[in-house]
TrEMBL record:
Residues 295-318 have a biased composition (Basic and acidic residues). The lineage of its organism: Eukaryota, Metazoa, Chordata, Craniata, Vertebrata. Residues 24-224 form the IC97/Casc1 N-terminal domain. It comes from Bos indicus. InterPro entries: IC97/Casc1_N, IC97/Dnai7-like. This is Dynein axonemal intermediate chain 7.
């Protein structure tokens, strides 16, 4: 046989091989252990060095903390100064109103507004045109009262004043609606003289900036005339046969305002907040009184010493000395009084700002079935008051006179369907009425609006009794079936634009910034200057959208109200967190961040960071960069990533494109107690000069807008 046989491995060879492998494995393990220990020692050494470095930086931060906070306190004096200016402006506007003597009442003075209401009640036989004209003054008074409640800091509002203003608002609203009813009755008495030649029925449309009124009187009672369309509009009704043959009138009063929804509760501080501010005031008063008494004692001591030395001098010279010595004593209390006033204002402003960010723990009331949750939804486009009215007796000509029977009970509503009926097929006899309404042109709906009806008994908006709702967005027409006529409104989710996708705040000019907020549906650009705000532009679904609010400067509170009325709600309430998934940040941290961002906004741009959601609730992360006005727009600007906890600010080592979040400190940077001193490390002298020259009203307005939008929690 050819070929060699394979050599067999002996037991000794196998044992030797095993020993070699074991020796090799032990050697590798030893090398790995040594390597690991070396790496671990190096890591620990690096960590030790880093810890020592951090400890030194923390010690340095702690050492200069008081100095930095004192400088920040001086800079934040702009907030009480702005509040003092607002107070002065409120008093000045009251004085201007008083000296103008234009006949309109001051709504904040109970006697004047009550006299106005009483005198207007006594006026009778006003036409619809006269009531609409008078309504402009009434709506202005209501608006002023609501602004007083919203603009006055909670700590300056007394409970009795809140009740007084709210009662005045309700009285004016009720009286205005009563006047519309009386004027409608006067018009309907003359329906036969205003009848259309073709149909034989009366039709009238009155349009104004605040109301649109549609009235149709059924004079012919033609059973075939069941489709009602008001001329030159798409608004109308499809009425059942039983109404087409009845002595009725249909009225649609579209008020572009909402006087039906109950007034929102006024934001008031809790007893804990009040006691905190009160304690602070007591401490300040005590400290100031102590300081003043010490100064007075020092002055008296000096005066006594001076008198003992010069007791041989003449009486006249002695009197002159006393007068000279008394001057600084009289001046001192004035200075300390102003200082105490500003400290008190500073504390109340801070407390009021924190109050704006308080989250409610639960919903304010229990919801019934089909009731609209007014914390979740908002009414838009005003209220459509739909009424079926009994046609009053008509005017009759007689020997050159017009004779009319005036009913003592006044204008009466026609009950449809009847409260009791023996007809088993009442649904066929009294079917729902089809209603077609034109949606207000100045309101934006991001989704198809829902229709709600007013339940007068329960004082709430409800969604039952409404069916077959269809909405044509391009024509801005909504059609639905209504079981019975009553006030209806259109509602939209108040939080449809929350949370935000991104935001940016950047300077435009001296004391002027642009705030851009991007949501799922829209991009809003808001300009802020001095004590005014303006909607600069709006995009809906990435397309430019024109709005009546563009290029109109308003105070921050008026601006917020106007945006909400237009359907552009980017202003969370204390209940919003119950309906939106938010990135909760502690209110005290948010307030400090917004105040210091506002202080720096003259020369620095800020924008959102995706890492803000990764850090805990007592820390915020955002991007910042210097932005001087002379600079050209940069396509890819270099942003610095900052983390701020309210008590400490630091630059982060990571950036927006990093893979994971880390709180590691950026190389060659330090800790600081404020944002102001943090950005000062890398800012130019020109930028810091611009910050220090900022107008106090401008800083206050920027801060108010940041507090109202809550960018750090809702993006």
């Amino acid at each position: 046989m050819s070929g060699s046989k394979k050599k067999k491995i002996t037991k000794a060879d196998r044992l030797k091989q095993i020993l070699e492998e074991e020796e090799k494995r032990q050697k590798e393990e030893e090398e790995a252990r040594v390597k690991y220990e070396k790496e671990e020692m190096e890591r620990l050494e690096i960590q030790r060095i880093e810890n020592e470095k951090l400890q030194k930086l923390e010690a340095k931060d702690l050492e200069r903390r008081n100095e930095e906070l004192e400088e920040l306190y001086l800079l934040e004096a702009c907030f009480p100064e702005a509040e003092k200016l607002k107070r002065d402006n409120r008093f000045l506007s009251q004085w201007k109103h008083y000296i103008e003597c234009d006949g309109s009442p001051d709504p904040s003075i109970a006697q004047e507004i009550n006299t106005f209401i009483t005198l207007w009640k006594e006026e009778t036989n006003e036409t619809l045109e006269e009531v609409i004209e008078k309504s402009k003054l009434v709506l202005n008074l209501i608006e002023k009262l609501k602004l007083i409640l919203l603009e006055t800091p909670p700590y300056d509002l007394q409970g009795k004043n809140i009740i007084q203003y709210q009662e005045s608002v309700l009285e004016l609203q009720e009286l205005l609606h009563l006047k519309f009813n009386r004027a409608t009755e006067i018009l309907l008495r003359q329906a036969s003289t205003l009848a259309d030649l073709d149909s034989g029925n009366m039709e009238k449309v009155i349009q104004d900036e605040n109301v649109t009124l549609y009235i149709w009187a059924n004079l012919k009672k033609n059973p075939r005339h069941r489709s009602i369309r008001f001329s030159e509009t798409q608004t109308g009704f499809e009425i059942p046969r039983i109404l087409a043959t009845s002595d009725i009138a249909l009225r649609l009063l579209h008020t572009h305002y909402d006087h039906v929804t109950p007034l929102s509760p006024v934001l008031t501080p809790s007893q804990e907040h009040i006691s905190t501010v009160t304690d602070f005031v007591k401490e300040e008063v005590k400290s100031v009184q102590t300081a003043v008494s010490k100064d007075l004692q020092e002055e008296n001591k000096q005066e006594n010493e001076s008198n003992s030395v010069h007791e041989e001098e003449t009486k006249a010279e002695g009197q002159g000395d006393v007068e000279e010595q008394m001057c600084p004593v009289q001046e001192e209390p004035e200075a300390t009084k102003y200082e105490m006033e500003m400290k008190l204002l500073s504390e109340t402003v801070s407390a009021a700002q924190e109050l704006l960010l308080e989250n409610a723990s639960e919903k304010p009331y229990f919801l019934e079935e089909n009731e609209v949750d007014l914390c979740q939804f908002t009414t838009l486009g005003g209220v459509y008051h739909l009424d079926i009215l009994e046609l009053p007796p008509q005017c009759k000509p007689m020997k050159g006179w017009m004779i009319v029977e005036i009913l003592k009970e006044g204008l009466q509503k026609y009950t449809y369907p009847p409260e009791t009926t023996e007809d088993l097929e009442a649904e066929n006899v009294f079917p729902p009425i089809e209603v077609t309404l034109e949606v207000h042109e100045n309101v934006i709906f991001f989704e198809n609006p829902m229709v709600a009806r007013w339940d007068a008994e329960g004082k709430q908006w409800k969604t039952d009794g409404i069916s077959n709702v269809s909405y044509k967005s391009e024509e801005r027409l909504i059609t639905f079936n209504l079981e019975t006529f009553c006030p209806v409104t259109l509602i939209q989710d108040a939080h449809i634009n929350m949370p935000y996708q991104s935001w940016e705040l950047r300077p435009l000019d001296v004391n002027k910034v642009l705030l851009t907020i991007t949501t799922v549906f829209t991009e809003l650009q808001i300009q802020i200057k001095e004590n005014l705000c303006m909607l600069a532009s709006i995009k809906v679904n990435n397309k430019n959208h024109s709005s009546i609010l563009e290029e109109k400067w308003m105070t921050p509170v008026s601006f917020i109200i106007a945006l909400k009325k237009a359907g552009l709600n980017i202003f969370p309430t204390g209940h919003s967190h119950l309906y939106v998934v938010i990135n909760y940040k502690h209110p005290s941290v948010e307030v400090k961040a917004y105040r210091q961002m506002a202080l720096l906004s003259s020369a620095f741009a800020f924008c959102w960071s995706k890492w803000n959601t990764a850090c805990e609730s007592k820390k915020t992360v955002f991007q910042v960069r210097e932005h001087l006005l002379k600079e050209e727009p940069i396509r890819n600007p270099n942003w610095t990533l900052l983390m701020f906890s309210g008590d400490r600010a630091q630059s982060l080592k990571i950036n927006e494109s990093s893979d994971a979040f880390s709180e590691a400190l950026k190389e060659e940077t330090e800790f600081h107690s404020t944002l102001y001193h943090m950005v000062k490390d890398f800012a130019s002298q020109e930028a810091m000069r611009a910050v220090r020259r900022s107008n106090c009203q401008f800083v206050d307005s920027v801060c108010h807008m940041l507090l109202s939008t809550r960018l750090l929690s809702y993006s």
